[in-house]
Design brief:
The structure is a homodimer. By secondary structure, the first copy, chain A, is of the alpha+beta class. Chain A has 6 helices and 6 strands, in the order ααβααββββαβα. Chain A has one domain: Winged helix-like DNA-binding domain superfamily/Winged helix DNA-binding domain (Arc Repressor Mutant, subunit A). β6 of chain A pairs antiparallel with β6 of chain B, so a sheet runs across the interface.
DNA sequence: TTCAGTGCAAACAGTTTGCACCGAG
DNA sequence: CTCGGTGCAAACTGTTTGCACTGAA
């Protein structure tokens, strides 16, 4: 598995994109990516349902819509979309990456994941204890959460300055 | 990769264990696990340095201490220790599980992970925004965090009740 | 002595890479 | 027409499983 947080700095949204497929396609072009049938289909799914979806779920949805697409192509396109800042990758610790539409109202948010059925809900708020209560109030039991911080430490910052 | 959060309910600490190897070994026995040389060595490392360590890091440390141990055995023992509630598994999204000693002062906490050198620091507090500031004040740049919630949704709770 | 613990080989799952062909611009 | 996009096969990484041997109790 790659390091999902390394893409962050690449994210570059061209124009102010909302939730329509047309805007997604503009974004594609602006990022120097060609408009293929596969990409159109993938973006349509992501814009409409915004995910997060695993690669397999995306493939199933493609097939349900009549398209076929090699799983490798989906991987490659998700990487493209993430680099283009249109899509965000999530890792819920169950071994597969998930991808969700990152533009419009879907900026920064968190998720509630059912440990049993893996259902995923979105959360807008962001203060931990309040939130665990909120999650309980939504009817979840055995609520727990995962929180980790990421950043560049001072040592690495210094090293980066030297290299420049 | 397994689902690290499924172990939570198994966690059962026997007696009030602190940070000594003797107590770790007591815990082993209380969990019905035999006291082998390998386990003794692994627990010594975890109690002394508390991690979080990847499986490979554990193997290296074992070798540095003169022991040898198949990587499969380390996997199996980490599962045992997690089930016994002595060790907690962490997933920082870089593709390998990490394990840290979970008893004594090392109860619930979070981490700051350097995106570049992968250095890991511990954090005790647990309110998100305050914390991102705190992390910045520690000298980290490009601070971000990962926060996800886990629980059993109402549907699954109902289903579980039926099955019983 | 007995069964849990271990090592080795092989299987597995998710993901990535190499290469030849295809199709958008 | 050209070069980026795609499919297929194969490699790779982290992890798990099967099985026979070994050693703790």
């Amino acid at each position: 598995m790659s390091q999902p947080h390394n893409h962050k700095q690449h994210g570059q949204v061209h124009g102010h994109a909302h939730g329509t497929i047309e805007e997604a396609l503009e974004n594609l072009k602006a990022s120097g990516l060609k408009t293929t049938r596969t990409r159109k289909a993938l973006l349509t799914i992501l814009v409409r349902e915004h995910g997060p979806f695993t690669i397999e779920e995306l493939q199933q949805r493609l097939e349900a819509g009549g398209s076929t697409c090699d799983i490798v192509t989906i991987y490659r396109n998700m990487t493209n979309f993430v680099d283009a800042g249109m899509v965000r990758s999530c890792d819920f610790g169950d071994g597969s990456a998930r991808f969700e539409w990152a533009l419009g109202e879907h900026a920064h948010h968190h998720h509630i994941i059912c440990q049993q059925c893996r259902k995923i809900e979105e959360l807008e708020l962001c203060v931990v204890e309040e939130l665990e209560q909120l999650v309980s109030k939504r009817g979840y039991s055995q609520v727990s959460h995962r929180l980790e911080f990421y950043g560049i430490c001072t040592a690495c910052q210094l090293q980066a300055n030297k290299t420049r």
